Automatic annotation (TrEMBL):
The reaction(s) this protein catalyses: Hydrolyzes free adenine bases from 7,8-dihydro-8-oxoguanine:adenine mismatched double-stranded DNA, leaving an apurinic site
Record key words, sorted: 4Fe-4S, DNA damage, DNA repair, Glycosidase, Hydrolase, Iron, Iron-sulfur, Metal-binding
Organism for this UniProt entry: Gramella jeungdoensis
UniProt EC number: 3.2.2.31
EC class name: hydrolase
Residue span, HhH-GPD domain: 35-186
UniProt remark on cofactor binding: Binds 1 [4Fe-4S] cluster.
Pfam families with a match to the protein in the record: EndIII_4Fe-2S, HHH, HhH-GPD, NUDIX_4
Cofactor(s) the protein requires to work: [4Fe-4S] cluster
Protein name: Adenine DNA glycosylase
Organism classification: Bacteria, Pseudomonadati, Bacteroidota, Flavobacteriia, Flavobacteriales
InterPro entries per UniProt: A/G_AdeGlyc_MutY, DNA_glycosylase, Endonuclease3_FeS-loop_motif, Endouclease-III_FeS-bd_BS, HhH-GPD_domain, HhH_base_excis_C, HhH_motif, MIG/MutY
Biological role: Adenine glycosylase active on G-A mispairs. MutY also corrects error-prone DNA synthesis past GO lesions which are due to the oxidatively damaged form of guanine: 7,8-dihydro-8-oxoguanine (8-oxo-dGTP).
NCBIfam families: mutY (TIGR01084)
Family: Belongs to the Nth/MutY family.
């Protein structure tokens, strides 16, 4: 089987017209690859356009503030990608005079760039013969070649990378890599792949052995943790409220949120008022508390589910620095907060 020829033939007939496929400029390729990690193209494309419009060059991205970058990234998730993106832009602009490394070995040293991203940039921009392996590639190769080694195991990662390198068209690695990823995204889908009209259906072991739904194999993730968030939405004098920036290595580092009181389980107003964290936020101020959402908002992340209540706190004033209500939307916030604001804020502030 001439795997590369079959794949390339399919690709040239079926590929999507995407903006980063019309350039070999490493800044734009890097930007698209970082954005599309764990993200569908349909979701990432509007962000790509926003970033390239706001920051047409790596120097423009490097000169932006962290808050500007996070605000533009808002809603795309996995915010460590945005922070690494910004750090790498500053490094390339300031230390490398705006020029990205021109090899896999150089690219993989950049912050936020792993094997997949380095392989993609090196092959697409510099025609270096290195194979990409992402979720789409794992699925295609595991099915066609009947490989049941778990794709998220050390052995699996090495095995699939070696196979992809063996199959790689070394004369045109850019087209081959993009074709393999596109084939997984459009044709060999997770659910309902188009096996009847597949160019590999005469060779596909998964199809022959009725294992299409069973492959690829993935080791089960750790148990999802439940957390209970209670956000305090202050309603202060002169239409002001309070936002705080999240710090540390946890979720949403660098984003802004309302003061947070985390509890061990769902709680009511009386129990909320009894918590030390709540008392610390309010001090001795006179206030009233009202629950905004009757049922907790469930926000699902990869390893944890957040059960969230928004408590409206009417107070004459607190010691924390307050901001005008109409300025809240200028801050980068998690999508959980953004959705609440869209429901809570008066129309004239949106």
């Amino acid at each position: 089987m001439d795997f590369s020829k079959r794949l390339t033939h399919w690709y040239l007939q079926n590929k999507r017209d995407l903006p980063w496929r019309n350039t070999h400029e490493p800044y734009h390729i890097w930007l698209s690859e970082i954005m599309l990690q764990q993200t569908r193209i349909e979701q990432g494309l509007p962000y790509y356009y926003k970033f390239t419009e706001a920051f047409p060059r790596v120097f423009d991205l490097a000169d932006a503030s962290t808050d500007e970058v996070l605000k533009l990234w808002q809603g795309l998730g996995y915010y460590s990608r945005a922070r690494n993106l910004h750090e790498t832009a500053k490094y390339v602009a300031n230390e490398l005079d705006g020029k990205f490394p021109e090899s896999y070995k150089g690219l993989i040293k950049l912050k936020g760039v792993g094997d997949y991203t380095a392989s993609a940039i090196a092959s697409i921009c510099y025609n270096e013969p290195v194979a990409v392996v992402d979720g789409n590639v794992y699925r295609v190769l595991s099915r066609i070649f009947g490989i049941d080694t778990p794709i998220n195991s050390t052995k699996g990662i090495k095995e699939f990378k070696a196979l992809a390198m063996e199959l790689l068209d070394r004369e045109d690695p850019a087209t081959f890599n993009q074709a393999l990823m596109e084939f997984g995204a459009l044709h060999c889908k997770p659910q309902n792949p188009a096996c009847e009209v597949c160019p590999f259906n005469d060779k596909c072991i998964a199809l022959k052995e009725h294992k299409v739904k069973e492959l690829p194999v993935k080791l089960k993730k750790a148990k999802v943790k439940k957390r209970y968030f209670n956000y305090l939405v202050f309603d202060l004098e002169n239409n002001k409220t309070v936002l705080e920036q999240r710090k540390g290595k946890g979720i949403w580092n660098g984003l802004y949120q309302f003061p947070l009181v985390e509890s061990e389980r769902p709680i009511g107003e009386d129990e909320l008022r009894s918590l030390d964290a709540f008392k610390k936020e309010l001090g001795k101020e006179d206030f009233s508390v009202e629950l905004f959402n009757r049922e907790p908002v469930v926000h699902k992340l990869s390893h944890q589910h957040l059960y969230t209540c928004f408590w409206l706190v009417n107070s004459s004033g607190i010691s924390k620095e307050a901001i005008k209500l109409e300025e809240v939307l200028d801050y980068p916030v998690p999508v959980l907060i953004e959705n609440f604001l869209n429901e809570y804020l008066p129309e004239e502030y949106k």
